[in-house]
Amino acid sequence: MALIVQKYGGSSVADAASVQRVAARIVATKRAGHDVCVVVSAMGDTTDDLIDLAQQITCDPPQREMDILLTAGERISMSLLAMAIDALGVQARSFTGQQAGVITDAVYGRARIIDVTPSRIAETLDAGQVAIVAGFQGVNTEANDVTTLGRGGSDTTAVALAAALRADVCEIYSDVDGVFTADPRIVPTARKLKQIGYEAVLEMAASGAKVLIPRCVEYARRFDVPVHVRSSFSDLDGTLVTKEDPMEEPIIAGVAHDSSQAKVTLVDVPDVPGKAARIFEVVAGAGVNIDMIVQNVSASGTGRTDVSFTLPAVDGKTATGALEAVRDEVGYSRLQYDDTIGKLSLVGAGMKSHPGVSAKLFHALSDAGINIEMISTSEIRLSVVTGAGDLPAAVRAVHTAFGLDSDQDEAVVYGGTGR
Ligand code: ASP
Ligand code: MG
């Protein structure tokens, strides 16, 4: 008998029939003799719909009210799921994040979990009942206000509860069968990974793979929670995410892609100490997270250089606004902004000990006639920026070049939204 935390994403509980289907899975797990704590997301696109609704009222809704609004989505799904389980003859009780003891900081909209005190959940499990917890939400106890954890935050709720309850495993159910070597929506020949380490999956997530959000993986790594990523639409085993295991670890875990990034280039930056520091101080001060940075040596004799970096396109206006304001102080001549880029990342913990990975990647792209705009490397990741239109072809070419294509049709996409 095990203690299992199961998390069901929005596409798994999109309508009443789906809620009943998920309830049947939960009941089956319970009847197999396990203790089950379930974390649930809002039904289907509820969160997006609530955001749209707020935007119709005002273009700048107060963040506190946004959080109260958005937490309503998970309250709907959690109570319906408890009813559906109850109707199948198993007792279930649902709890808000606050009731479940999910305590966060006070940053509305993207709060961080600082503690989990799940005494009511433990009592419920001890009483032989199924506990259902609203994902994506917590409480800031200083203000006694509800908070949300940022989009996709139910994964983090699930892992945090699994850690606090010392669960044997945290199962994350979505609409794909696990972690794939690439997004099955772009690469139909993508292969499912049996196992992957926290580091590699974190790089995949940070590089745009949507299967798990980075914060959830960071949490799992910190508390050493084994995570089983699987589909609620099939009974197949998914992907086990655990501590690195060099025997199991493939050289290349997969190819991630991200089409939500943009590129900023500052032209003719004086090549003297302190300029890069100032530029990125300004960007950080605007609250913008950057990813790749490229600066060349100054073109001979001019004493000036170009500095490029990538950032989420949604932060484009903020970052360019902040940089325009310091143009004279920094001394650059021109700012270029391009949001028609795509980022491809090859990820693998085994990469560091294998020379020739970058040459192979560049060859694959050149054979496909794809131009590379930027390159950056880390121990276990190699990223390139291409034109946005080239990205799907680039992902497929690299996937094939590294021998990742599966000869079976493994990559079934059951849901519609990617989450
Ligand atoms: N319902 C929230 C969202 O759509 C949280 C989640 O799905 O994990 O972002
Ligand atoms: Mg969702």
Low-pLDDT residue intervals, each spanning 5 or more residues: none
Oligomer: single chain
Q: What is the share of helical residues? A: 25-40%
Secondary-structure-based class equals: alpha/beta
- Tell me, rounded to a whole number, the average pLDDT: 94
Radius of gyration computed on alpha carbons: 23 Å
Terminal Cα span:
30 Å
Number of strands: 20
Give a short synopsis of this structure.
The chain has 419 residues and is α/β, with parallel strands linked by helices. It has helices at 16-31, 46-57, 63-87, 119-126, 154-164, 198-206, 214-223, 275-285, 316-324, 327-330, 357-367, 391-401, and strands at 3-8, 35-40, 92-95, 102-104, 113-116, 130-134, 137-140, 145-148, 169-174, 195-197, 227-231, 239-242, 254-258, 261-270, 293-295, 304-312, 334-338, 341-347, 374-378, 381-387. It contains 12 helices and 20 strands.
Quick tags:
12 helices, four-stranded antiparallel β-sheet, alpha/beta, eight-stranded mixed β-sheet
Detailed description of the structure:
Helices cover 33% and strands 25% of the residues. The two termini are 30 Å apart. The protein is globular. The model has no long low-confidence stretch (mean pLDDT 94). Strand 11 and strand 12 form a beta hairpin. The longest helix has 25 residues, at 63-87. Helix 11 crosses helix 12. The chain contains 12 helices and 20 strands. The protein has helices at 16-31, 46-57, 63-87, 119-126, 154-164, 198-206, 214-223, 275-285, 316-324, 327-330, 357-367, 391-401; strands spanning 3-8, 35-40, 92-95, 102-104, 113-116, 130-134, 137-140, 145-148, 169-174, 195-197, 227-231, 239-242, 254-258, 261-270, 293-295, 304-312, 334-338, 341-347, 374-378, 381-387. It has 419 residues and is α/β, with parallel strands linked by helices. The relative contact order is 0.12. The strands form 5 sheets. Strands 3-6-2-1-9-11-12-10 form an 8-stranded mixed β-sheet, sandwiched between helices. The protein has a 4-stranded antiparallel β-sheet with strand order 13-18-20-19, sandwiched between helices. Residues 10, 41-42, 47, 419 line the site of magnesium ion.
